[in-house]
Amino acid sequence: PLALGLYTVNAVYGDTITMPCRLEVPDGLMFGKWKYEMPNGSPVFIAFRSSTKKNVQYDDVPDYKDRLSLSENYTLSIRNARISDEKRFVCMLVTEDDVSEEPTIVKVFKQPSQPEILHQADFLETEKLQMLGECVARDSYPEGNVTWYKNGRVLQPVEEVVVINLQKIVNKSTGLFTMTSSLQYMPTKQDANAKFSCVVTYYGPSGQKTIQSEPVVFDVHYPTEKVTIQVLSQSSTIKEGDNITLKCSGNGNPPPQEFLFYIPGEAEGIRSSDTYIMTDVKRNATGEYKCSLTDKSMMDSTTITVHYLDLQLTPSGEVTKQIGEALPVSCTISSSRNATVFWIKDNTRMQTSPSFSSLQYQDAGNYICETTLQEVEGLKKSKTLKLIVEGKPQIKMTKKTNTNKMSKTIICHVEGFPKPAVQWTVTGSGSIINKAKETKYVNGKFSSKIVIAPEENVTLTCIAENELERTVTSLNVSAISIPEYDEPEDRNDDNSEKVNDQAKLIVGIVVGLLLAALVAGVVYWLYVKKSKTASKHVDKDLGNIEENKKLEENNHKSET
């Protein structure tokens, strides 16, 4: 490279400067020398080399002591380059007849340290011009320049908004420059989270270069412009017994730490931190809730609905009624929104609500009226009715001859609650028969059965007794040798219906036959009436004959 038409060597601060002698070695060369020129033009010789004796001599120049090296081709090297080495050096080749000179310009460059932003502001306030910080880049040569950036864009000076001041200080001992650029800045709310940085531009051996600082984010303070109230809850709905946490927040920075909360039923606002907690809320907590800053400015509101569910079962608990009685049952619901109601009897869901106009034993059981509030998690109520249907013992006895003709089965059909105790006795001896077998007690009914083979006519007595009454019924049973008609046992409802249908059919046939007989009788009566006059005398004779026959029959019966 050439500087002003002269050969220039660019060196890095601290490295070795190498300057070749750019002259052709002439014939008859006696020696070569290097010198540099003072600012006033006077020369200072620093190195000598003889071409004949091959010896090298260095002049006593303090700045270059132990730093010089002169090679055989007269190339001069200077170790540990300094800023003071920026000079005009001259190579001289001397013969007996001539002295040749060739100058070289030395330029030294030093890269500055990475810039740092020092003396940073703790925070920035909007609408206020304040010192943001200082960008410092040290030990540069030649001097560099500093530029400020925000979010990657250059910050240009703007009066009372962006004020930049650059100072450059040189170290007299080293000749290196330190650049300090201060930035005064008036931030806006949008500068929250903005990245500020600075860049130093400097010159190196290969041209212009830049180094950037680490970005810095400042806490920007700005006033609250809006207040927001929230309901913090684990569920989307609130029910009686829940806890409610109200949170009030402002969009300023730093955010407000205290607020006024306005609760339904309270005349004045309640001063609190940013949260207000209500525990075990009731339905009367439903209403509009507000919060504001402590100066009562900037208010926000929200509406809270506390859902509730009431269930009233009449009657409830344990209820004892007599068979055949009526029992009205009602399950009344009061809720904050539509509720679903269903009934369960003995762990089985019922299709309809229970209603009892005439209680039966099968109506007894545990009834649960249960209700839930749709879309309100965990809101469920239920009440229980334990219905007991009592009845005095009722007895019906039946008998039948077994197919083997060797025994008879006597059955005592019993109804009642509490379950009656059954005893059998034989009239006369009064002994208790212990070989009876009982069926399963279902819906207040069961039966006790015995099998006997009586040698003579006997009377069996069935005694059924519970806490309400003692009932006794007897049945005459013929000896096993005397045939008797079987009596059917109780049948189930399906068989009863079939029997009823058959009975209705038989009654219809009988009525039809009676009507036919009546018509035939009327026809016969008309016929007899017509022929009555003509056969009057014949009838009289016949009547005498009939009377005689009747007398004979009566006499025969009397004899017999």
TrEMBL record:
Subcellular location: Cell membrane; Cell projection, Axon; Cell projection, Dendrite
Gene Ontology cellular component list: axon; dendrite; plasma membrane
Gene3D superfamilies per record: Immunoglobulins (2.60.40.10)
Transmembrane segments: 505-527
Broad class of the protein's primary localization: membrane
Biological process annotations from GO: adaptive immune response; cell adhesion
Keywords assigned by UniProt, alphabetized: Adaptive immunity, Cell adhesion, Cell membrane, Cell projection, Disulfide bond, Glycoprotein, Immunity, Immunoglobulin domain, Membrane, Repeat, Transmembrane, Transmembrane helix
Superkingdom of source: Eukaryota
InterPro entries: CD80_C2-set, Ig-like_dom, Ig-like_dom_sf, Ig-like_fold, Ig_sub, Ig_V-set, Surface_Rcpt/Adhesion_Mol
Residue intervals of the Ig-like domain: 103-212, 223-305, 324-386, 393-473
Membrane topology type: Single-pass type I membrane protein
PANTHER family: CD166 ANTIGEN, CELL SURFACE GLYCOPROTEIN MUC18-RELATED
Protein name: CD166 antigen
Organism: Opisthocomus hoazin
Classification lineage: Eukaryota, Metazoa, Chordata, Craniata, Vertebrata
